[in-house]
Specification:
The chain is about 40% helix and about 20% strand. It has helices at about 5-15, 30-35, 55-70, 95-105, 125-135, 135-140, 175-195, 205-215, 230-245, 280, 285-295, 295-305, 310-325, 370-390; strands at about 5, 20, 25, 40-45, 85-90, 110-115, 145, 160, 200, 225, 250-260, 265-275, 275, 335-340, 345-355, 360-365. Bound molecules: (2S)-2-hydroxypropanoic acid.
């Protein structure tokens, strides 16, 4: 048992706004008051913490100058109003991620019809009705339905699969493989039967393996079996770099490739802050922390939350892919797809830069990478392939 007193609280407060306590630790009454006075958040161990950035004087000054740089104007968010809505999008799985993504799809009227499917009685139908109830405010005319059976897949243009078990603290994404591969296989086969022309977006973990499973268990072309992970990991990477540099997230351009897990490859050779290479803006230890924070981002949410995993950022990341397919976003997006020799990788799914369109994958873009990044990407592919054999 550790007794946490005033000194410990003040030391934590000097480092960050989080106080980490073990399950047996005791907080003195004064320490407890101090925690609320200082506005600290109490988080139970184990937590994948990342030390806050503490720049030296020179770095701090150069960052302030960078933030104030008159030569840089933060880009506006790009929205293309000529984008067209999908006819029908089906969310398989109406947990936190499926519901949040569906909510966003309806709110921006990205589909004329939106259906939810979930085994939990009433969950999908009530979510659909709940979203429709909001249309008096959102003005969205997306028609929402929900039910428990896979026949709702019929006529889908896009099927987003979030069904499956999420992680609990201490579980890796790979620990979910056996349970979730049965779910994904069942859904993929049902898509082939009910909506053979649909594009499948797999969100269920372990992501790269589940995307491969969906591809392997159907006759769908690789262009229509896409895994969502790179858009999420890249968003976390940009957030982390922007926070470290103290700039607007739109001032950061960065993405990750590789697998959705420890073999993720945050790409520094293309990462910029206010148009400048990241290494010119942040010291190496801060960059290393951002990489760690990105790779551990999902795990950090699981550790803090204890039941269930992230939902809001994954939902945005699904919608970013759908927006790219329907022409509302024109950027290259990192997406997990089956590779056939691209980047020297064969017959395995990992995240690579892609262009998406109405037919799904339009192009895998082979960007020049730093040698160690290319090696890390190939290593990720080897490790995912190894896992697929077990
Ligand atoms: C994440 O990274 C759950 O894998 C998901 O948050």
């Amino acid at each position: 048992v550790r007794v946490i007193g005033e000194h410990d609280v003040r030391t934590s407060a000097a480092r960050s706004n989080v106080l980490v306590v073990g399950s047996d630790d005791l907080l003195t009454p004064y320490a407890r008051d101090l925690v609320s006075q200082l506005g600290l958040r109490v988080v139970s161990e184990p937590v994948e913490t990342v030390a806050p950035n503490a720049p030296d004087h020179g770095t701090a000054v150069s960052r302030v100058l960078l933030r104030r740089s008159p030569k840089w104007v933060t880009p506006e968010a790009v929205t293309n109003l000529s984008a067209t809505a999908f006819g029908r999008v089906v969310m398989v799985g109406c947990g936190a991620v499926g519901a949040a993504a569906g909510h966003m799809i309806a709110a921006r009227a990205a589909a004329r019809e939106l259906a939810f499917i979930d085994l939990v009685p009433g969950l999908a139908a009530s979510t659909a009705l709940d979203i429709e109830h909001a249309s008096g405010i959102t003005g969205s005319d997306t028609r929402c339905t929900g039910g428990e059976t896979l026949d709702l897949l019929a006529d889908a243009d896009v099927v987003v699969v979030t069904a499956g078990r999420p992680r609990s603290p201490g579980m890796s994404r790979d620990d979910l493989r056996d349970i979730n591969s049965k779910v994904v296989r069942g859904v993929a086969e049902a898509v082939q039967e009910h909506a053979p022309d649909a594009i499948l977006v797999i969100v269920t973990n372990p992501l790269d393996e589940m995307t491969y499973e969906a591809y392997r268990s159907t006759q769908l072309p690789r262009e229509r079996v896409l895994g969502m992970a790179g858009t999420l990991d890249s968003s976390r990477f940009r957030w982390s770099l922007a926070t470290a540099a103290g700039v607007h997230p739109r001032d950061v351009s960065a993405f990750t490739l590789g697998s959705h897990g420890d073999e993720m490859v945050p790409i520094l050779s293309h990462a910029t802050i206010k148009g400048r290479p990241v290494a010119e803006v942040l010291p190496q230890d801060a960059i290393d922390r951002c990489v760690k924070e990105t790779v551990g981002g999902g795990g950090r949410i699981v550790a803090i939350r204890r039941t269930g995993s992230a939902s809001i950022a994954p939902a945005h990341s699904i919608v970013e892919m759908l927006d790219a397919m329907r022409g509302a976003v024109s950027d290259l997006l990192p997406v997990s797809v089956l590779l056939r020799g691209e980047y020297g990788i064969e017959d395995v799914v990992v995240g690579v830069p892609t262009r998406l369109g109405r037919a799904g994958l339009e192009e895998i873009v082979e960007l020049p990478l730093a040698q160690e990044e290319l090696e890390a990407l190939r290593r990720a592919a080897i490790i995912v392939k190894e896992r697929l054999k077990n």
